[in-house]
Specification:
320 residues, alpha+beta, 60s Ribosomal Protein L30, Chain: A, Phosphoribosyl-aminoimidazole Synthetase, Chain A, domain 2, 2 domains, seven-stranded mixed β-sheet, four-stranded mixed β-sheet, globular
């Protein structure tokens, strides 16, 4: 099957049709019509076989995750997803694999209102690159640089499950089948917090998505905002499955340093806390207050009133 037949069969009309797409796949460039008084948010991620995913990862899950991780970047900026391009490199044409991959991609694109408007297909080691574009009202984008002394620190969802799922896939952890399935599912199918990010536009002083681990990602906020922080590790939200599977110190290690949660970490001034409860309840996402921004430039982890050093499960691009 030749390149253009692959595109026509598996990727034309992928995602949701949008009125703001003037010209889509089929020309040298796509044409889109951004809404007035909105900024364009752009993010790009590449997933490479044996670096970011194992060769036996189900194609449908790979299609889903390839887009979901980009959507998480838009969520952290409070942006509404709009258009994407896809560059896919494959060693050969496997029609069954492409059918499953495009189905997973289409599933998440349609759900979040994204249109695939272009890209490229090439031959080589398997890799997936998605560039996603979103829109956010002018001056309302969330950034990493707005946290202030006294702001409260929150996270959405539960932390650590994806990293434990990766260790199951690596073969370094193993549980009963139901638990294995749960953690692998959380690794394969993260939930981008798109609605939560939009709800935080008027409330949060800073935000970031948790891709490299809570400790690493809050460090980016502290650096850009030129502040410090205190995290009460006992307040970090852990799933029931995590608490059942491993001892608490190991669970906290996954939550603090594991990575690939794709939850939101954000800061909120004291006077916005009441509004936050209302906004995120409408977005249908759980969240927890885990600490506070402080003066200085250091991150302090506290457990039972004492300094805390977590077990290190820091995310690293894995090797085959």
């Amino acid at each position: 099957m030749k390149e253009f037949k692959v595109i026509d069969r598996f990727f034309v009309n992928c995602g949701q049709p949008r009125r703001d797409v003037e010209l889509s796949i089929g020309d040298d460039c796509a044409l889109v019509n951004p809404a007035a008084h909105k900024s364009i948010a752009i993010s790009c991620d590449t997933l490479v076989e044996n670096i970011h995913f194992f060769p036996d990862m189900p194609a449908r899950a790979l299609g889903y995750k390839s887009l979901a991780v980009n959507l998480s970047d838009l969520a952290s900026m409070g942006a509404e997803p709009a258009w994407m391009t896809l560059a896919i490199t494959l060693p050969d044409i496997d029609e069954d694999w492409l059918s499953e991959f495009s189905s997973g991609l289409h599933q998440v694109a349609e759900y979040y209102g994204v249109a695939l408007v272009g890209g490229d297909t090439t031959r080589g080691p398997k890799s997936i690159t998605i560039t996603i574009n979103g829109q956010v009202p002018e001056g309302k984008a969330l950034t990493r640089s707005g946290a202030k002394n006294g702001d409260w620190i929150y996270v959405t969802g539960h932390l650590g499950d994806s990293a434990l799922g990766l260790d199951i896939l690596r073969g370094t952890q193993h549980f009963e089948p139901a638990l294995n399935e749960y953690f692998i599912e959380r690794h394969y199918h993260p939930t981008p917090r798109v609605l939560a990010g939009q709800a935080l536009r008027e409330l949060a002083s800073s935000a970031i998505d948790i891709s490299d681990g809570l400790v690493g990602d809050i460090g980016h906020v502290l650096k850009r905002s030129k502040v410090g922080a205190v995290i009460e590790v006992d307040t970090i939200p852990l799933s029931t499955q995590m608490r059942e599977a491993v001892p608490i110190e190991q669970a906290l290690g996954y939550a603090l340093t594991g990575g690939e949660d794709y939850e939101l970490l954000f800061t909120v001034p004291e006077f916005q806390r009441g509004a936050l409860e209302v906004a995120l309840s409408h977005a249908g996402v759980s969240f927890a207050k885990i600490g506070q921004i402080s003066t200085g430039d250091k991150l302090r982890l506290i457990k039972d009133g004492e300094p805390y050093t977590p077990m290190n499960f820091g995310f690293e691009h894995f090797k085959s």
